[in-house]
DNA sequence: GAGCGTTCAGGCGGTTCA
DNA sequence: TGAACCGCCTGAACGCTC
């Protein structure tokens, strides 16, 4: 074989590209160097997918054990009870298959009991049912946060103005008008008292800030507001605000059960507010004798 | 701000409606805390095994629905179309059984369409067909690894010898004979040139190490080798090596398409090598005048 | 990601009628 | 008797929880 192995020996370096240590280029060859799983089912020898019920088994033996081990009437071997349990034969005799499952140490107690199974299913159903509720709750929470931020910015502005300009007798907006101011402006006394009664009722409810901003949002997105053209969209927004308000109140009631019928009361107040607004415009027109308000002016004053 | 933000909202729905998205209590139907699953088939009342096609059904109705719902010619009720569908009577009228399946909400679209079924079967067939291929590929991979390791050990030995003894002018084996050496030893010039042409051809192929060791293995397991008694086994081994070489080259060609006909070329080289080997022995005998080689000596030198 | 349960199609022996 | 039907058993694929 001199020549044969000659060729072998001489060609060793010939094709290789100037490699010094010959043993080096062994690993990175094209074939897959990844580990093939030599794991085989300890019951039947099929390819195992992992540990199931405390034994390394295939999917088939896993399912078979789970289905079979808790049955009251176990299978019976029609032969001598020593059937071969292989991938090809495992379906032949469920009794010997189950016996081998137990022999190799598969644990019956790791199969969920019917009670545990019922509990698990109930929990799943509960989570399933709560998932959309949580989603809705989260969306509503974000909406409240947005309204709160906007309101905070608005109030902060007003508050800053109040603090900064109080000494200069500058008060912007109808924040602190007195009854005398209103009377002096020409409003009817009954109207003024109505408004003050409304404020008193509202104050007695001791609303939290989220409730207040939500109620303000319901009032803000009124499709009846003069000048509104996209009534549909505004109405949907208003409904969303009202639903959120209702939901928020229901949520709070679990911790403060005293606020019963709060949502209904707020709806009533909103209705009253609408009437007040109408009357307000009547009074304005009566006082100033304006025959019509241009849309821009309405938007500013409303 | 009170007057500014005010706006009447009268559109809100009655506050008594409290059916939000809150789901009914989903406690596991407390009636039976026993293992008895109160789940019964919504079609026939038999014991249900789980949800099948989006309805809680027994195995029978599950299989019936799958087999029946996609048939073009549906069953027809021989009566008034209002047959009782119970565990005992469900086989009597397939038409009413199917109708009840649909009535309780079993969904036809959850039965695999013929296309999806064909796809699934094709995938399964592909997997089945590729499984032995993967197995063979894995075995070939292991064989190549074994050959590579053996080859590496051999080369390392030769290399070490080369490095360690070069300064002592010790070169073991015909590794680096020159043409002059060979001529001086008595070989015919044409024979020497033949060998060098062979080496040049082999070198131009720029074999990878797996290809090289496989080719060496094919040459090694030649049943024509003098002294071989178990020709059958050796021939089978040689065929296995040749098949693995062919398979490896085919596999590599998917990434390196330039090596066309490589397997055929290698087979040709092996044939040539056999001729060279024969000629070598002829030359040896001519030079040394040996009338016959004992098997042991052949084995050592071949 | 490992290891459970769930759900689908399929295999197969038993059953029902024509 | 045999073709269609039936339903139990099987395992592959997937979903879910820790
Ligand atoms: Zn197994
Ligand atoms: Zn058995
Ligand atoms: Zn049923
Ligand atoms: Zn019928």
TrEMBL record, chains A, B:
Domain (NR LBD) ranges: 1-302
Domain of life: Eukaryota
GO MF assignments: nuclear receptor activity; RNA polymerase II cis-regulatory region sequence-specific DNA binding; zinc ion binding
Pfam family, one: zf-C4
Coarse class of the protein's main subcellular location: cytoplasm
The keyword Protein biosynthesis belongs to this UniProt entry's keyword annotation: no
PROSITE patterns: NR_LBD, NUCLEAR_REC_DBD_1, NUCLEAR_REC_DBD_2
Every Nuclear receptor domain range: 38-113
One GO term of the biological process aspect: negative regulation of transcription by RNA polymerase II
Subcellular location per the Swiss-Prot or TrEMBL entry: Cytoplasm; Nucleus
Coiled-coil region: none
Family listed: Belongs to the nuclear hormone receptor family. NR1 subfamily.
Protein task: Binds and transactivates the retinoic acid response elements that control expression of the retinoic acid receptor beta 2 and alcohol dehydrogenase 3 genes. Transactivates both the phenobarbital responsive element module of the human CYP2B6 gene and the CYP3A4 xenobiotic response element.
Protein name, per record: Nuclear receptor subfamily 1 group I member 3
Organism encoding this protein: Chinchilla lanigera (Long-tailed chinchilla)
Gene: LOC102017882
């Amino acid at each position: 074989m001199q020549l044969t192995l000659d060729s072998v020996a001489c060609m060793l370096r010939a094709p290789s590209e100037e490699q010094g240590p010959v043993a080096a280029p062994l690993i990175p060859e094209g074939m897959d160097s990844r580990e093939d799983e030599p794991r085989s089912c300890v019951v039947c020898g099929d390819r195992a997918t992992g540990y199931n019920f405390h034994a390394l088994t295939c999917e088939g033996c896993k399912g078979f054990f789970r289905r079979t081990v808790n049955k009251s009437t176990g299978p019976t071997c029609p032969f001598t009870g020593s059937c071969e349990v292989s991938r090809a034969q495992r379906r032949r005799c469920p009794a010997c298959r189950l016996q081998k499952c137990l022999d190799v140490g598969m644990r019956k107690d790791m199969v969920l009991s019917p009670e545990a199974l019922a509990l698990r299913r109930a929990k799943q159903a509960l989570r399933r049912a709560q998932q959309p509720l949580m989603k809705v709750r989260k969306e509503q929470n974000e909406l409240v946060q947005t309204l709160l931020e906007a309101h905070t910015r608005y109030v902060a502005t007003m508050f800053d103005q109040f603090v900064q300009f109080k000494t200069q007798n500058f008060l912007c907006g109808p924040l602190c008008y007195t009854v005398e101011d209103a009377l002096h402006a020409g409003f009817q006394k009954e109207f003024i008292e109505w408004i003050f009664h409304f404020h008193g009722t509202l104050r007695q409810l001791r609303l939290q800030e989220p409730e207040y901003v939500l109620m303000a949002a319901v009032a803000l997105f009124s499709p009846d507001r003069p000048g509104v053209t996209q009534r549909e969209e505004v109405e949907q927004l208003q409904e969303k605000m009202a639903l959120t308000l209702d939901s928020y109140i229901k949520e709070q009631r679990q911790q403060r059960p005293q606020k019963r019928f709060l949502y209904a009361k707020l709806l009533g107040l909103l209705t009253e507010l609408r009437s007040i607004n109408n009357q307000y415009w009547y009074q304005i027109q009566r006082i100033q004798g304006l025959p019509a308000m241009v849309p821009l002016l309405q938007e500013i004053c409303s």
